[in-house]
Design brief:
about 170 residues, mainly beta, seven-stranded antiparallel sheet, 2 helices, about 45% strand
Length: about 170
């Protein structure tokens, strides 16, 4: 597992832990949600010019947990994204499709995973998120076309307080 102890994740966990349980219960837990998505992906890149085909098969697990916000003028929240991939079939002669990471010896990884934490803050019509992000904005869209989605580390701000105007910065 990588990306577990990020600066933003540690700071946000400390801030949330310092809040009283009574404040945390209001909104934080009630508005929380989670989703587990399973993806089974087979990729076959057949060469018609006589080269060796590249083909791999893998199972993906995406656990997306999102908290609500604490009560008050400024609301705090925390999201977590757990990603895991398991190799079902691959060999050194068929590896390299981009579906699975490949080790230096040419073998595809038998498993790989990551855990991303995102701290979020809501103040009026503004939302600030920092940590692991899956952006979908005109200048940056995460790739979700393979076994696991592409993630980014950073901070983004969204503002919807003006009618017919949506501001997004990162």
């Amino acid at each position: 597992m990588r990306d577990f102890f990020t600066r933003g994740g540690i700071v946000s966990a400390g801030l949330l832990a310092s809040l009283s349980p009574a404040v945390m219960a209001q909104g934080f837990w009630e508005d929380s949600q989670g989703r587990l998505t399973l993806r089974n992906f087979y990729f076959n890149d057949g060469y018609r010019d006589g080269g060796e085909d590249r083909k791999e098969w893998a199972q993906g697990f995406l656990l997306n947990l999102q908290s609500g916000y604490t009560e008050g003028t400024v609301g705090f929240g925390l999201d977590a994204l757990g990603l895991a991939g398991l190799r079902l079939d691959s060999s050194p002669t068929h590896a390299g499709t981009g579906l699975l990471p490949v080790h230096d010896d040419g073998h595809a990884a038998s498993e790989f995973s990551s855990l991303g934490v995102t701290a979020k803050l809501r103040w009026g019509d503004a939302v600030v998120k920092t940590g692991t992000l899956l952006p979908k904005i005109p200048v940056l869209v995460h790739n979700d076309g393979r076994l696991l989605p592409q993630t980014f580390q950073g901070t983004q701000v969204e503002y919807t307080g003006i009618r017919d105007l949506y501001l997004h910065a990162g």
